[in-house]
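Mitotic-spindle organizing protein 1 structure dump, as promised
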Amino acid sequence: MSPQSDDKRQAAREVIDILHEISTLLNTNLDRTELSLCVSLIENGVNPDALATVIKDLRREGEATSRAPPHESPE
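structure tokens r here:
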């Protein structure tokens, strides 16, 4: 790999580290991988507000599913 490529990777890592620190302070519960995916989606044109809404909705659905009693199978 070229030194320039290594520099870009290091810079990207530093950006994600900073975003993760901010994310932790804001209690978003997003890990570095999830943050990287969000950044990539936004860089590719996804609306940040829409992405935030989807993440919140998915979390709500996940919480509701985990609180629901298990389904009984018919015998």
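The chain has a mean pLDDT of 90.
lmk if u need the other ones
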